[in-house]
Amino acid sequence: MSESAVATAASPVAAPPAPVEKKVAAKKASGSAGTKAKKPTAPPSHSPTQQMVDASIKNLKERGGSSLLAIKKYITATYKCDAQKLAPFIKKYLKSAVVNG
């Protein structure tokens, strides 16, 4: 009787590792399919930040230089985009433009 109990106990232990491998393979397949299904991003409807900032400084024609607020207002009015979202890019461009001359 102990031999039959050992045989039945051994067979359920061997069965679980097989489904685990199938689950891992299924996860890998679904993960790679998820990366291929990304939608391409649409290009922005406005000009690059560099062009917008250059145009705003030229068109504002202030003798002492244009303030950041004036540049943001000009970009918002002319290009119909949110200057608050572009603020870090405007600041970054102005700093690099000052360094490069």
TrEMBL record:
All copies of domain H15, residue ranges = 45-101
- One matching Pfam family, short form? Linker_histone
What does the record list as GO biological process? nucleosome assembly
Superkingdom field: Eukaryota
What would you give as a GO molecular function for this chain, any one? DNA binding
Q: Could you tell me which residues belong to the region Disordered?
A: 1-53
Which SUPFAM superfamilies does this chain map to?
Winged helix' DNA-binding domain
Q: GO CC annotation: what is one? A: nucleosome
Record field: compositional bias (Low complexity): 1-13
Which InterPro entries does the protein's record reference?
Answer: Histone_H1/H5_H15, WH-like_DNA-bd_sf, WH_DNA-bd_sf
Write down what this protein is called: Histone H1-like
- Natural source organism: Drosophila rhopaloa (Fruit fly)
> What gene makes this protein?
LOC108039232
